[in-house]
Amino acid sequence: MSTAQGESELVELSKSLFAAEDEQTIAHPKYPKALQQIRGDLFLWEALADDFVLVRGNREFLPQDKRAMISHIRYTEELKDYHKLAKGPQSPNAVPKRSIDEGPEAKVTEPFGVVTSVVSLAGDTFDNLQVFRRVAESVIGWQCVYWRVVKRPETKPETAP
Prior knowledge:
Blueprint: H1 3-21, H2 40-47, E1 48-55, E2 64-65, H3 66-74, H4 78-87, E3 98-109, E4 112-121, E5 124-134, E6 142-151
Parallel strand pairs: 1-6
Antiparallel strand pairs: 1-2, 3-4, 4-5, 5-6
Helix pairs in contact: 1-2
């Protein structure tokens, strides 16, 4: 497989991971039929490695393994509570939309690939780094082993002298 093809696959996989985290249905024609049009949390069971680790941009959350990340998204109210705090009391049930502002950009050095992107959520900007490993046994072909999110410092507007 060419490096360019691997990089293209990782860009699409990264986008699918963001969609899954947002509890969207995954629909990608290159994925095996069994993984098309399924809930995001079910997709994550295949897309995340068993030794996966996520370090969130919100320091109130400890690093999460595969099970903790999926539980955090699907089975708890923690994420909604986080969004309430980030968004403020004016709309307590609104979950803000995530937007990918830059990237994703991928680089493959077999058997690993790295994807970087910049994401906005609830008025904050986050740098994302995802590390993937090629896994022949995976129906996707890759699994995410590490995901690091770093909140960018708030920039204050310059004041005129």
